[in-house]
Amino acid sequence: MKKLIIGILCGIWLGTLSAGAQCAAKNDAIQPGERLTYELKFNWKFIWVKAGEAKMNLEPVTYEGKNCYKTTLLAVSNSKVDFFFKMRDTITCITTDRLEPVYFRKGAEEGSRYTVDEAWFKFQDGKSIVNQQRWRKDRETVYATDTLEQCVFDMLSILLQARSFDPTSYKKGDKIHFPMATGRKVEDQTLIYRGKKNFKAENDVKYRCLVFSLVEYNKKGKEKEVITFYVTDDKNHLPVRLDLFLNFGSAKAFLETVEGNRHPMTSIIED
Fold first, then answer.
1. CA angle at 181 for the pair 251 and 214, rounded to the nearest 5°
2. How far, rounded to the nearest angstrom, does the alpha carbon of residue 76 sit from its chain's CA centroid?
3. Are 191 and 211 contacting, i.e. CB atoms less than 8 angstroms apart?
4. What integer best gives the mean pLDDT of the chain?
5. What are phi and psi of 4, to 5 degrees?
6. Domain boundaries defined on the chain
């Protein structure tokens, strides 16, 4: 399910996250009050079953005396799948009004395991400084501090920044690399742009989309596709569909509802 969360959050245009800057961005895509809901489905013995839902909300807050945004993602499995995989994840990030991350927390109950990951961010002298910790029941808390020349984000703040980037210059097959704090360490992620495709949702709404893949590499450098996702080709850059390739089968996530979106959904194709 970690891959599902990353897919929902990273399934958008990431552009070039340059080093040596303040890691800030002009916000052209989001506004307080935006609310997104996703339906999650698992393939279980050749049958697609509803597995749960994910909700993401954005609201204004004051953090350390500054005007900030607070984004919250809640992902919950339902009783049909709890018997083989129970999930109760709550993820929160706080960013400045220029979309720089300052705090991240993920509380995850996945199966019999419960962990809390946290990260605190600073950007100074052209560098990213990240303090992280991972708490897990009956284990010692793990601490880490990283200083990098690149801008470092968490899985929610990178979504907020990326949604304002312009993807028009990208070519099919291009790769996008970005560093992400997980609470335990900074991991390198890779996305591949697959081109454009139309997608018809279950409610018969058809979207014009940008298609991306989140991939992993084994020790020999062989590429493994983890997620294919479809992102609206408009100023909102909203993920509307995700196809996930998991160790125990496959899963899908579909955008169900959108409220408070900043721009019109011009990617919708009228029949």
1. 35
2. 16
3. no
4. 84
5. -65, -45
6. 2-269
| Nearest-5° Cα angle at 233, 264 to 106 | 90
Reduced to 3 states (helix: H, G, I; strand: E, B; else coil), residue 8 is: helix
One-letter amino acid for residue 69 of the chain: Y
Global pTM? 0.83
- The answer to whether 198 and 206 are in contact (CB under 8 A) is yes
What's the pLDDT tens digit per position in 148-192? 988 888 888 877 877 887 788 889 999 888 888 988 889 888 888
DSSP symbols for 195-239: EEEEEE-TTS-EEEEEEEEEEEE-TT--EEEEEEEEEESSTT--E
Q: Residue 27's CB: how many other CB atoms inside 10 A?
A: 17
Cβ atoms of residues 53 and 40 within 8 Å? yes
For the four alpha carbons of 210, 42, 52 and 76, in that order, the dihedral sign comes to: negative
SS3 248: coil
Paired tokens of 62 = 């004051």
Q: What long-range pairs does 74-77 form, CB within 8 A, spacing at least 24?
A: 75/1, 75/4, 75/5, 75/40, 76/52, 77/1, 77/40, 77/51, 77/52
CA 158 to CA 20: how far, in whole Å?
17
- Cα–Cα distances in angstroms (integers) from residue 61 to residues 69, 121, 138, 208, 242, in the given order: 6, 17, 34, 34, 30
Structure tokens at 201: 């949702």
Looking at residue 266, the DSSP 8-state letter turns out to be T
